[in-house]
Amino acid sequence: MAIAGFDTAAFVRATLAEDLGDAGDITSAAVIPADARFHGVMDSRDAIVVAGLDIAAAFFRSLDPEVEIEMLAKDGDRVAAGTDLMRLSGLARAMLTAERSALNTVQHLSGIATLTRRYVDAIAGTGAILLDTRKTIPGLRLLEKYATRMGGAQNHRMGLWDAAMIKDNHVAVAGGVGEAVRRAKDAGIASIILEVDRVDQIEPGLAAGATHLLLDNMGVPELRAAVSLVAGRVPTEASGGVNLDTIRGMAETGVTYVSVGRITQSAPAADIGLDLASA
Fold it and tell me: Rounded to whole angstroms, how far apart are CA atoms 234 and 212?
């Protein structure tokens, strides 16, 4: 598995360096004989959507290139509690040194994928598409957005560079919705997302050249009115106040997308462990 733009090897090196410090794994070095072997099974204690298994394996391989790894699941799989995800056999010191970094990664990413899938399931049949946001942990955006894809979402813009998103503060400084959008268009930006929180901002924004409307913190009646007014001229996105209780009603208004920050911002880690197994 390769994630576009993400350097797995550099991530593994930096993560292990943070954990090892200058002295290394003093526990394993003191307690485990250098030639001891470890045969383990990584399993999920919860029903989850899997994400990050290949990165977890990269941690073990980085410390024992000869480790034997058998993948029993793949990213994107929905698995029941008690499912074995990976078997491995390698040098015990290396496996135990890499264990926490590997588990932290797969727990975090699987947690995101699992919560994302709950939101995707909640809007099934409405025609609306779930989007993630830029509410990610600094340095982990590519990984976290990968995890949302494994959960069934689509990625919103990856950063400040791949689309303009004109929000209320941009509008305030620029002097109005139309002026802000015109400036973005004059700058040659092809994708111009305009955040509006009132229906009366829609026509000026579209007239100036907005290519996507983010309907911010609107209730269901306002969303329906906005979708009716836009009439398919550009994609529409509901955002703000979205949770598992509200998302379906918002999706049923006819919006193209619903974006949810909490799938990356608030996802609990999945309960995944690594246990000694018989050889």
Answer: 5
Is 167 a known active-site residue?
Answer: yes
Identify the active-site residue in 167, 224, 248, 262: 167
pLDDT band at 279; cut points 50, 70, 90: low
Entry pTM: 0.96
What's the rounded Cα separation, in Å, for the pair 104 and 199?
44
Residue 61: name the closest of 98, 33, 20 by CA: 98
User: Residue 2: pLDDT band by 50, 70, 90 thresholds?
Assistant: confident
Residue 176 near residue 194, CB atoms below 8 Å: no
Does 145 qualify as catalytic in the annotation?
no
Catalogue the E-assigned strands of the chain: 37-44, 48-49, 68-71, 78-79, 84-91, 129-131, 164-166, 192-196, 212-216, 236-239, 257-259, 272-276
Q: Which of 91, 94, 102 minimizes the C-alpha distance to 42?
A: 102
118 part of the active site: no
Task: Catalytic residue, from 84, 121, 197, 216: name it.
Answer: 216
